[in-house]
Write a structure and sequence with these properties.
Chain A is an alpha+beta fold. Helices cover 33% and strands 21% of the residues of chain A. Chain B has two domains: 299 residues, Ribonucleotide Reductase, subunit A (Orthogonal Bundle); 98 residues, no CATH class. In chain B, 55% of the residues lie in helices and 5% in strands. Classes of the chains: A alpha+beta, B mainly alpha.
């Protein structure tokens, strides 16, 4: 069992966190996919490196929250914070690490002039939906829509 | 935080663009390929960026709590001279790294790697431009020995690999592995310097740092991510990529990176003047720990690719075992992994300058034995360079007592500009600085 009293440190993501994020993702999904996270981390580091956050306990990355500031998405011209991916090592849940990382990323979004933070959630995943609701997210007037593309001729 | 943007007076802007045409012939392809490789990213802007809304007060040193200085003449003469040297050195490194990257950029095996490095080069150009903004937006002539901003710019633009201020920028790249290792190792020193300078008592300098640091974050990724991918390929038996090639390039760059922090015993003046918030050794210690993390990360990627059935905990355990025992695990030896060389290895500046210390910290008494050791641990193509020849010749003199360490530090070759009107003049020749007569 991890030492519950160990202090967590919330800090911006860096390129040496990829291995830690891959591990957390693997613990959650059971899939090892370093390529995916190398691409995602490179994306966030080049766009908005101060936004994405990690939680570190005793030098080990135990949580991550990736997002960036965007304008012009879906006709929303004012800059908004977007949260895309997050994960907490199952051994370190229940310590408010997600909340602390969320507060840090929101502070960054505010400093950049954003007044809204947005994300998408899979309704079939009540744990994630509940977590986001607890953070203060509410249903948006924007609704995510999709359709299957018919096979091309 | 908000960022303000500004451009240099046209003749200086044009001079940078002119330089860029010589050293970044692929610049246009970067712009045309930007959307493909960096979709939705802000387009590249050759301009100076200044963070707005930063602290007005000096945070460290003799002037703590006072208002930050806005003009060089608000600093003491000694402070202004010191800061001017920092800005010129910083400018030199930015342009220097582009020249180094340019040499082997085309040898990238992967288009994405090449485009990432191209973006790094463009952003280094912007960082050099940023330093020019600091040199040209105020009058420094009272501390520059009468040298005008225009002349300082010309001097920096005329530097080439060999004539830059810091040694790390005077080494040619041997292959594309150097582009990657340089980004992972040398740009990491840059990150430390920029971070330390965020507190700078000269406000325009402090305000220049955050935008540069944000760009630097990707530069480090442009080094580490390809290294991780190459470690995977090496583990999967790709004969074209090996851990030994990565190791040798790291051995080439890490000593120069450590020297970029300045002598381990120094740095007090920067703190006293409020220009940086850490002394040299303190910053270097943190850097070494970060390099250690990077090496472990790459090794873990290698082991996982070698043993796909292993979970992350098993990989960590095998890594610990190999590091402890220096033995083998199921066909993988300790020597198959990459390692961080001893901080005293192959040093020519700083506290361990001109000592003969091996990659594992072993000490050598005999120059020939040490040179043989170097030849086994440095890239083959680098061994035949002028830099190595001069290093070995100088080392022999230091060991024989014919040259002091201080003079040896001065004796490494530099290119000196001897004329030419074009700001990117190639009219340079090799010269060796004469040791100071009274040096001990």
């Amino acid at each position: 069992m991890p030492e519950l009293k160990a202090q967590a440190r919330i800090r911006p993501l860096d390129e040496l966190d990829i291995g830690g994020i891959v591990k957390i993702d693997e613990r959650i999904t059971g899939i090892y996919r370093p390529d995916v996270w190398e691409r995602r981390v490179a994306y966030y580091l080049r766009r908005d490196p101060d936004a994405s956050q990690v939680a570190e306990v005793e030098g080990r990355v135990v949580g991550f929250l990736l997002g960036d500031l965007r304008a012009g998405e879906f006709g929303i011209e004012e800059p908004s914070g977007w949260i895309e991916r997050f994960g907490i090592d199952p051994d370190f849940r229940g310590r408010d690490l997600g909340k602390h990382m969320f507060e840090a990323i929101c502070a960054h979004f505010r400093s950049q002039g954003a007044t809204t933070v947005r994300t998408l959630v899979d309704r079939r995943d009540p744990a994630i939906a509940g977590f986001l609701k607890a953070l203060g997210f509410n249903p948006s007037v924007l609704e995510a829509l999709e359709m299957r593309l018919p096979p091309g001729s | 935080m908000k960022v303000g943007q500004t451009t240099l007076e046209k003749k200086y802007h044009d001079a940078v663009e002119h330089w860029r045409r010589h050293w970044m012939p692929d610049y246009d392809s970067l712009l045309s390929g930007w959307e493909r490789y960096f979709p939705k990213d802000e387009p590249f802007c050759l301009c100076a960026k200044l963070e707005l809304g930063t602290s007005e007060l000096v945070k460290i040193g003799d002037h703590t709590g006072e208002k930050k200085r806005l003009r060089p003449d608000e600093l003491t003469e000694e402070e202004a001279k010191h800061l001017l040297a920092i800005i010129r050195a910083q400018a030199s490194t930015e342009f220097g790294s582009i020249q180094q990257h340019a040499g082997t950029l085309h040898r990238a095996a992967d288009d994405e790697d090449r485009f990432w490095v191209l973006r790094v080069m463009a952003e280094e150009l912007r960082h050099g431009y940023q330093m020019f903004h600091l040199l040209l937006s105020q009058d420094w002539t009272h501390v520059s020995g009468g040298v005008k901003g225009e002349e300082m710019v010309e001097e920096i633009l005329s530097m080439q690999t060999g004539s830059h201020v810091l040694d790390a920028f005077n080494l040619e790249y041997d292959s594309f592995i150097d582009n990657i290792c340089f980004a992972a190792i040398i740009d990491r020193v840059g990150k430390y310097q920029l971070t330390m300078q965020k507190v700078c008592a000269y406000k325009p300098m402090a305000d220049s740092m955050p935008p540069m640091l944000r760009e630097e974050a990707f530069h480090l990724a442009a080094g580490v991510i390809p290294l991780r991918r190459w470690a995977q390929r090496a583990a999967q038996g790709d004969p074209l990529v090996t851990m030994h090639v990565i190791q040798k390039s790291m051995n080439k760059w890490l000593p120069r990176g450590l020297e970029m922090f300045g002598d381990e015993r120094g740095g007090d003046t920067n703190v006293k003047f409020g220009f940086k918030d850490m002394k040299n050794r303190d910053a270097q210690d943190l850097y070494i720990e970060e390099i250690r993390r990077m090496v472990r990360d790459i090794n873990a990627r290698y082991l996982r690719a070698r043993f796909p059935a292993y979970g992350p905990e098993k990989v960590e355990q095998v890594l610990d075992d190999l590091e402890r025992s220096r033995g083998r695990h199921d066909g993988v030896g300790f020597e198959d992994l990459i390692h961080m060389s001893d901080r005293r290895f192959f040093r020519r500046k700083g506290e361990p300058a001109w000592t003969m210390v091996g990659v594992d910290g072993e000490e050598y008494k005999d120059v020939d034995a040490y040179v043989t050791h170097l030849s086994k641990h440095l890239p083959e193509a680098y061994l035949t360079t002028r830099d190595m020849r001069m290093y070995v010749e100088t080392l022999r003199k230091v060991v024989a007592g014919e040259l002091s360490v201080k003079d040896a530090i001065m004796k490494m070759p530099r290119l000196k500009r001897v004329g030419g009107a074009c700001p990117c003049s190639r009219a340079v020749r090799w010269v060796i600085e004469e040791p100071a007569a009274k040096s001990s």
